[in-house]
Amino acid sequence: MDTFTLANQVEIPVIGFGTYKTTDGSDCAVVRQAIEAGYRYLDTAAFYENEEAIGQAVRESGVAREELFLCSKVWRERMGYENTQEDFESTLEKLGTEYLDLYLIHWPRPKDLSVDWKPLVLDTWRAMEELYLAGRVRGIGVSNFLPHHLNYLMEHTSILPVVDQMEFHPGYIQKTAVDFCRNLGIQVMAWSPMGRTRVLKEPFLMELAKKYQVSVAQLCIRFALQCGVLPLPKSSSLERMRQNLDVFGFEIERDDMYQILTLPQLGWSGEHPDRERMPAQVCGE
Ligand code: A2P
């Protein structure tokens, strides 16, 4: 698979497999199928409680560890220097690996919005910088950070995150955050690149997909790539996993890109880093 090059020169597959809620407890069959379908970048998090299943899938796949790209994240309620050190070790143990390819801060702040996120982020990052400098992880980054969180981090630390993983799909392109990252050379990754199934039913996207003779899901994944964003599609079916990787045989024309980029908001997950979770009727879920 093609790769993007991160700011620290590490190569990363241009499409990853998202695993949030794709595994059922200890069941590793879905992840094994994803590897079989051709995914080499597996994206997990301590919060997903599937690291053990992923570790098992990796072992059973027979694919060499160096050919895979494993990313995990420290949970928002476990931020802080010692917690991060501890949880990193637990993640490695569960995945059954000696190192991670990428380790991220999952959210910039805990759920309790009255807690001061700033010292927590700095303490977490200090632990991550140490892990990176000790060669235990090939890259460190963040997830769901907006420009003001990144600014604070940059003003107080010396190593820049190499990635920022955030919700991104047609109708929710987070232009300000994406442009901010691009200007700093931070690779943006898209969780929910097709906005769950909601975006798949959008009439204009359905029409456009017909024009390119692809599915709306493929259109969304290709759209992310043409924006320079690394998509992390999830699926529980081998056929759709394969379909979501089959996005290199067409190119969205410039004017169609503009039309997707200027679509009205199509709803979003309701998960905003600085707010309470939005109720479904507000975010269009
Ligand atoms: P399924 O597991 O049945 O394939 P997102 O990653 O944007 O949150 O979206 C995940 C959802 O999209 C899952 O419910 C998944 O369902 C569905 N999905 C994934 N790939 C496709 C596809 N190619 N066509 C239709 N639905 C898809």
Could you explain the architecture of this structure?
The structure is a single chain. The chain is α/β, with parallel strands linked by helices. Helices cover 40% and strands 13% of the residues. The protein contains eleven helices and ten strands. The protein is globular and about 50 Å long. The relative contact order is 0.13. The mean pLDDT is 95. Adenosine-2'-5'-diphosphate binds at residues 18, 192-197, 200, 215, 217, 233-237, 240, 243-244.
**Which band does the percent of strand residues land in?**
5-15%
Number of strands: 10
Average of pLDDT = 95
Enumerate the strands of the largest sheet in spatial order, edge to edge or round the barrel: 3-4-5-6-7-8-9-10
Fraction of residues in helices? 25-40%
The description of the largest β-sheet is: 8 strands, parallel
- The SSE string, one letter per element, is EEEHEHEHEHEHEHEHHEHHH
Q: Roughly how many Å is the radius of gyration?
A: 18 Å
Report, as a whole number of angstroms, the end-to-end distance.
33 Å
The distinct bound ligands, ions and cofactors come out as: adenosine-2'-5'-diphosphate
Apparent shape: globular
User: DSSP helix count?
Assistant: 11
Q: Uncertain runs with pLDDT below 50, 5 residues or more?
A: none
Look at the helices and sheets and give the structural class: alpha/beta
